[in-house]
Amino acid sequence: MTEALVVDDNRQTADALHQMLDVLGVKARVAYGSSAAISILGSGFTPNLICLDVNMPGIDGVEILLYLRREPRLIPVPVIVITSDDQPETRRKVMSAGATELIIKPATIDALESALKKANML
Predict the structure, then answer these.
(1) Which homologous superfamily does the CATH classification assign to the domain defined by 3-118?
(2) Model pTM?
(3) Which sequence spans correspond to the domains of the chain?
(4) Over the range 82-105, which residues count as b (16 or more CB within 10 Å of their CB) and which as e?
(5) Which of 34, 46, 82, 99 has the greatest number of C-beta atoms within 10 Å?
């Protein structure tokens, strides 16, 4: 079974993504912010997929994405960035940092399903 990690500092958004993934048959753990995500990933958990917000206090999603792409065990993990920031510069930055797909909030189950298929997770 596919296991995902949802990283978003907004609890409502994180919980909604968790529920959508569940409907799509993907088991998920939730990290409410970057510190929680680093803690979970640092404990040795290696998900099959990561859904990552960009704009978070402290360490932002781009910094986490850069970390993921330097960590050997996490390099192959697809990362779907889910953000409300639809600026071309943000899109360029996350894709060049190694994002697999990008979804603009509010995420819909159809957009998430499409991104999962493109990432070969469904």
Answers:
(1) Response regulator (3.40.50.2300)
(2) 0.96
(3) 3-118
(4) bbebeeeebbebbeebbbbbbbeb
(5) 82
